[in-house]
Design brief:
alpha/beta; TIM Barrel; nicotinate phosphoribosyltransferase; 2 domains; 3-stranded parallel beta sheet; 7 helices; phosphoprotein
């Protein structure tokens, strides 16, 4: 009855010079109800010669998360917009995001944090980061370099190394090189014009399109690789040895 009442009110508003925007579904079988609503809108559009009626927005809410959206996609829903609240404000899969600030340079002097847990060892000094693309247009790897190194060049072979595992290394010949490092805050103020929400959204969508499907799949995705240059790799381990305490046996 809610759908039919909406349609009746929307038609009445149209007679008075107003145009309805759409509906929200927040309970029940979202896929089925969205298809029913779209079919109803299309029938009314044809019956009353109102083309815009067939394109009314259908919004869905009700504790929606990634799994819900994937399931709805498989069912061929007709939803235009998802209202995500609880699962956006409170991350169910990782309710706490652990972040720690680590100093990597003081007065132009590189600093390194040492730990028995290799995952906590920092990469010293100022760095640049570049995204390297393959021949198929997909992103292959992100490469960290020391700030004074020359950027990778298209068509030129570059050695990419795992920062802490010597045997993990590979040559990459990029077909495209994208600089990723940008300074947005410097000396206490915004350093460049901040993008709009629409520009941020387009940037994220464009970036996701460059990833292979196996990186984006929900179940057991392939980890995306981040590497260091040969120069940075050697610098990390030289500084590590210089700062690591030397034990004494007796």
């Amino acid at each position: 009855s809610g759908l039919l009442n909406f349609c009746a009110v929307a038609l009445g508003l149209n007679d008075q010079g107003y145009r309805a925007i759409g509906i929200r579904i927040d309970s029940g079988d979202l896929a089925y109800l969205s298809c029913l609503a779209r079919e109803t809108f299309e029938r009314i559009a044809e019956r009353f010669k109102l083309p815009w009626f067939s394109k009314l927005t259908i919004v869905a809410s009700n504790d929606i998360n990634e799994d819900t959206i994937l399931s709805l996609n498989e069912q061929g829903h007709k939803i235009d917009c998802f209202g995500i609240g609880t699962h956006l404000v409170t991350c169910q899969r990782q309710p706490a995001l652990g972040c720690v600030y680590k100093m990597v340079e003081i007065n132009n002097q590189p600093r390194i944090k040492l730990s028995q847990d290799v995952g906590k060892v920092t990469m010293p000094g100022s760095k640049n980061v570049f995204r390297l693309y393959g021949a198929d247009g997909h992103a292959l790897i992100d490469l960290l370099q020391r700030v004074d190194e020359n950027p990778p060049e298209v068509g030129q072979k570059v050695l990419c190394r795992h920062p802490f595992q010597e045997s993990k290394r590979a040559y990459v010949i990029p077909t495209q090189v994208e600089p990723l490092y940008r300074v947005y805050w410097a000396e206490g103020r915004v350093a460049q014009v901040l993008p709009s929400l629409e520009e941020v959204r387009e940037r994220v969508q464009a970036s996701l399109r460059t990833l292979r499907q196996d990186h984006k799949r929900t179940l057991n995705p392939t980890p995306y690789k981040v590497a260091v240059s040969d120069n940075l790799y050697n610098f990390i381990h030289e500084l590590w040895l210089q700062n690591a305490p030397i034990g004494e046996l007796s």
